[in-house]
Amino acid sequence: MLDDTDRRILRQLLAEPALATAELAARAGVTAATCWRRLERLEAAGVIGARAAVIDWRRMGYEVEVSLRFTLDKTDPRAFDEFLDGARGVPEVVSIETFLGRVDVRLTVIARDMKQYQEIYRRRILTLPHIADIEALMLVATIKDEGALPL
Amino acid sequence: MIDLDDIDRALLRALSADATESAGALGRRFGLSQPAAWRRVRRLEEAGILAGRRVTVDRAALGFGVTVFLGVKLATKGRVSLEDFERAVTAIPEVQVVQHVLGLFDYRLRVVARDIADFERVLRRRIMTLPGVGQVEANVLLSEERRPGPLG
Fold first, then answer.
1. Is residue B148 situated within a structural domain?
2. Alpha-carbon gap, residue B117 to B109, rounded angstroms
3. Is B99 on the interface with A (CB under 8 A)?
4. How far is B8 from chain A (nearest CA, A)?
């Protein structure tokens, strides 16, 4: 379905999603018209989805980021849905992931400082339904964060 | 840190859903002229709050059907420097994200692979051979959802 031209364009796009189409075309070694056409086709096929702005929460004063790993009480068939619905209602939750493994769900929670984190944790997180166990990993630094795929 | 008003927060919310929206379209949505919307977006970029873009792709359609998060504990802290580990792990093309964390593990990695067999290859040949690597826990990603965050 994908040919080498598609892959070249995708590789450049994933490496630098903010590139203008003309620059993307130049880096992928295709004409701007070809690049447009290919991008349109990949978008229509759903291979390329949304292009979202990345917000740097630290620059907005959110100094604390914690990865909370949950094991849920799966004896209740509604555990996942109810837990996820509850988590969506917490504004400081910036991402929700579900897993196959020892961990069922991971929430990324941000806070302005430890005091606010403690407040969110006690009032909004511990009160979520069906929690069997929680583990916390506190972010020290992000060393690498790229969407690139080894295409 | 710069002060943000409700319109700035609305702009951040809109752009974190679709970064390609033009200043003109944003202005119409939030009652601003095109130049005023452009100036606000520019100010958010200059403050580093808008920090680039992320493009969502259908990884499975591109042949990467498996995403795994690894928790890695270093076995020989003090003997192997964190820098050595970080340099080696960031060079692995299948590793998209490396985070230094405090807690049960020392690092969190996001790894993409074509399938489970390919993941096993990456794990055995690339991850388990990293300098200082100790206990490793793997969780296979089933779904992920980005939330707008505390933008009012």
1. no
2. 18
3. yes
4. 12
